[in-house]
Amino acid sequence: MSSFHPLRIEIEIITSIIHGNYYPIHLDGLIYWAVRNFSDTHPIAIEEVDKVFSKSSGVYHASQALFVKGRDSKIIATEVVRATHFQWTEFSGKFTKPKKSIKENEGPFRRLFTEKLATKVNKIIFFAHGDAEKIKFYLNSLIGIGRSANAGFGEIAKVTVEDSMEDYSWFYDDKLNRILPISIFNMARNEPIKCCRYKPNYKSGDTTDCYIPINNVIVI
What we know:
mainly beta; 3 helices; about 10% helix
């Protein structure tokens, strides 16, 4: 008997979630990096993720993060300012190349403060078709969700995994609920198309044209 079932995963969040630059937060991506905490290699991590989620056309049945909006759960767009370590007034050396060509988002010339877009939300929801126990174990092994989780952002307070009546991991209310390659569709859709990755680790590997979800809010 298969351990894979349609699932609804609810996560309570304490601190603001810092956005990534390109992709929505996907559950398979979170589980991948949780597995990488126990394994050093990409192939071994993928082997384990294959045991966590079902997969069709090379895509895991794991949704994007849906921000919960309701009477007791608000969604607030905000900005996070983080201290770094450099200010141009401190620099007394000579430039060997134009200042505008110097990277200020990394390295020794990183700015004294950096600003990141973030979302303050009480809960997020994922949908999946997979193994409930494995999903709960790996999510509970994470400190937080989103960027700079090790610095206290996107801190996870509680993880709840329960059965769902249907598999909403790819579509919710007929709307796209994760990045999907256009090659798996017979007819064109209305969502925007972007050349990107649709499977973990989402940072490296081949890219292809994909449909990008335009809604990441769930009202309950």
